[in-house]
Design goal:
The chain is α+β, with helices and mostly antiparallel strands. The protein has helices at about 5-10, 20-25, 40-45, 80-90, 155-165, 260-270, 310-320, 350-360; strands at about 55-65, 95-100, 105-110, 115-120, 125-130, 135-140, 170-175, 175-180, 185-195, 200-210, 215-220, 230-240, 255-260, 285, 295, 320-325, 325-330, 335-340, 345-350. The protein is built from 8 helices and 19 strands.
């Protein structure tokens, strides 16, 4: 795992903190959503029953964060490559094919011009494939691995679960309204932060009335009318996909890497100290709560040597960021990132000023 691999997860505005109170979910266990006027809690609770769903479909992701398109013609340093990965996630639109056969068989195909990236899970075996790099990675999952996988491609279910997992009293939840997504009737609920310290204005989740599957999720910036980020199905068919879709064998000329997920997971565990504490390995520490949570990486975690001098990476940094007290920062419509002069990196769905204060 690259040391900056956490960046898309922290910077991407699909990382939503805040949802509804736990009693609302607990009291909705027997509240149906396929009828009329379900409660918001019932709609949220119904998502859990979609874990065994079988379906195939096409996803579309759009982003409008106010970032410039990544300049072309840059060099090939790892730092510039990381910047390309992050900016590509945040500025470009993406489409993907998704195939799911219950909780332990999934395939996601992200197709770009003359290239394809795949994530394939079949039981305990997980393969990632990059056709442009001709590289494959194989991971054998430990027996206690969580059922959901995330490897750079975000689905509506990912966004919904991240919002729901952050159960705090900081969110206003709307009454469900009826919408249609990819030809399926859905209930849509809106989660609105009560805090004025976040850049997030609202999160909208559309959930299939019959199956509980999240069909569309969008994140809207405070004061904006249109979504800054939206992920949703444009087509969706229920039923088991062909079994062959979950079988993957790398081409004979591919570079294959084996990874020990159990060992990596043990390094990721550990107790977080205060926001100035140093976590184990390259894991970030967190300060704040709910929608105003800030992630911080300690000095030395990200190699910033390429930012010095007159190289492409340095010019890219100057284009994307502005000088602030103690470093440089960029603020998009939903998230901010702050690079301190002493080498730390802070990010969150908050104004830059909040990151500067947290770094002191």
């Amino acid at each position: 795992m690259k040391k900056s691999a956490w960046l898309p997860a922290v910077i991407a505005p699909v990382v939503v903190a805040g949802a509804v109170a736990a009693p609302m979910i607990a009291n909705a266990a027997n509240d149906p959503i396929a009828g009329t006027n379900p409660s918001a809690a019932a709609v949220i609770a119904s998502i859990a029953k979609s874990s065994d769903a079988q379906y195939s479909g096409k996803l579309s992701q759009t982003s409008a964060l106010g970032l410039p398109e990544l300049p072309t013609g840059s060099g090939g340093s790892s730092l510039e490559g990381d910047a390309s990965d992050v900016l590509g996630l945040l500025t470009a639109s993406h489409t993907a094919r998704v195939y799911v056969d219950g909780p332990d068989k999934q395939r996601i195909q992200l197709t770009q011009q003359l290239a394809e990236q795949d994530v394939v899970r079949n039981g305990s075996d997980v393969w990632t494939w990059d056709s442009k790099e001709r590289s494959a990675t194989h991971v054998t999952l430990p027996s206690d691995t969580a059922k959901d996988l995330q490897d750079g491609t975000t689905t509506p279910a990912d966004i919904a679960r991240q919002a729901i997992d952050a159960i705090t009293p900081t969110t206003t939840v709307s009454k469900p309204t009826e919408v249609s997504v990819a030809g399926h009737d859905a209930w849509q609920i809106t989660l609105t932060p009560k805090s004025s310290d976040t850049l997030v204005g609202a999160v909208r989740l559309a959930v299939d009335q019959q199956t509980g599957l999240p069909l569309r999720a969008s994140v809207q910036a405070a004061g904006a009318d249109d979504p800054a980020v939206q992920v949703g199905f444009t087509s969706l068919d229920y039923g088991a996909p062909a079994a062959r879709l979950f079988d993957f064998t790398p081409p004979s000329n591919a570079k294959v890497t084996e990874k020990d997920l159990a060992e990596a997971g043990s390094h990721a565990k550990g107790e977080h100290g205060d926001h100035r504490g140093t976590p184990s390995g390259d894991e970030p520490t967190f300060t704040g709560t709910g929608w105003s949570t800030i992630a911080e990486l300690p000095a030395g975690t990200v190699d910033r040597s390429g930012l010095e001098g007159e190289g492409e990476a340095s010019r890219l940094l100057d284009q994307l960021t502005k000088p602030v007290d103690g470093g440089r920062a960029v603020q998009t419509s939903l998230v901010s990132v702050y690079l301190t002069d002493d080498g730390r990196v802070l990010a969150g769905a908050v104004p830059v000023a909040s990151l500067v204060d947290a770094a002191k």
